[in-house]
Amino acid sequence: GPPGAALGLWIVWLRRERKKPDETPEPLELPAVGWPWRWLARRTKKPVFLDIGRAIFEATLILFAAYLTHRMLSIGPSDLNKDIADTNPENNIFVSLDWLKDALVYAALGCLAFGAITEAMWQRRPRGYTDHLLPMIAVGMVWLVISYFPHSNMYVLLPTVRAERLWYFPVIGTTLVIGPALIALYQRARRAELRWVARFAWVIPAAFLTFQTARAYGHAMDYRDDLVFWEATKDAVPNSAKAHLNYSVMAGARQMWEVRLGESHMARMLAPDWAMAHIYTGDTLCRMGRPDEAWEHYARGFDLGPNDKSLISLALQCLWDTGKLKEHEGELRELEKKHEKSWLAWLVYDTLLNGDKNRGVSKEYRPRSYNEAAKDDETSTATEENVAESATQSAAESVDDDNNNAKMRDSGTGGGKQ
């Protein structure tokens, strides 16, 4: 990958450096620290012996830099990142903590040894090949991989959709690659034997900037509203269950029920163990007047997320609104027994007992939009006549809360969902 290409570029650059030496090398400076070091310097011609402590000092700096990187990025299981990963162990890729500790120790010793060996092998060379483009491209390739790795989902599965903010740091590496590459292409075109190629060399950077500008404008149009944003997101990452589910909710808020149903099914198939996908699929069917079809999805969601209070309340309220709650009392009682001391058990018990008095789920547990006016500009009130719109708005608010929690969790200040 990029690190291997970077190593290759570095080797090419070193070979070019060796092929173009000056004819007058600078004389070797002898140390002034005693005859043993003078003798070693003459025998080995290695200036490391000018100051033997320099190798140890610089190797220590390398080790310290590696330690700081580890602490700042919180790579590996620690108290700093214990709330970042999904709480479900099956959704995380774990590396043994004992193995990780040993690996860090050996890596530290390796950094120290590598630094010392590098210093010992280094010697003054005549100035030769001074092109800085290849080393810069090599550094950019390594930067891209190392900076993207902590949030790449290859080590720990992060509980959020891929986001542009995660590219801000790695894009420095792509800049170090693209910039020198454009310079090299431009310079080569300027030196071309064909006059028209040299004359129009400026087209290379101009074409790149034009392409970037057009792509940036097109991408900015994805932020026109929530529906367009999540449509672009699910098209960009078609295997993201959360992107499909969020798009389905935004479509439902605009009464696009068939679109919402199709996208909810897609989210459910992509994440078969995600309670929210099943509950929202059932809720879509329920709002479409098909509560009998909704029950199997509700039941699966209840079983997967017995402590997802807002989701359970959303489902129970729709079942009560459509008069189907009592029909499924037997199944609900079985789920209540299966998940004792859970929110599911309490809400089922309370709703079956006090549903007639509370007109469904108790108001203190009911989704917000059942109790207050919807916040969509196109919807004025959440009354009994438009309870379907109100419930959709509740689902949208639930997704918005989930997204905000995921963003907070990314910054280490809150919690979220997969």
Quickly describe the structure.
The chain is mainly α. It has helices at residues 2-19, 35-44, 52-73, 97-121, 133-148, 171-190, 195-199, 203-220, 226-236, 241-252, 257-270, 275-287, 291-304, 309-321, 329-338, 343-358, 387-410. The chain has 3 domains: 26-124, no CATH class; 131-223, no CATH class; 226-410, Serine Threonine Protein Phosphatase 5, Tetratricopeptide repeat.
Number of domains: 3
Distance between the termini: 29 Å
CATH architecture of the largest domain: Alpha Horseshoe
- CATH superfamily heading of the largest domain: Tetratricopeptide repeat domain
| CATH third-level topology of the largest domain | Serine Threonine Protein Phosphatase 5, Tetratricopeptide repeat
Q: Strand tally, please?
A: 0
What overall geometry do the principal axes of the alpha carbons give?
Answer: elongated
What is the top-level CATH class of the largest domain? Answer: Mainly Alpha
Q: Profile the largest sheet.
A: none
- Summing up helix and strand content along with how strands pair, one would put the structural category as mainly alpha
Count the DSSP helices: 17
* Strand residue content: under 5%
The SSE string, one letter per element, is HHHHHHHHHHHHHHHHH
Mean pLDDT: 74
Low-confidence stretches: 370-392, 401-418
C-alpha-based Rg, rounded: 31 Å
Which range best describes the helical content: under 10%, 10-25%, 25-40%, 40-55%, 55-70% or over 70%?
55-70%
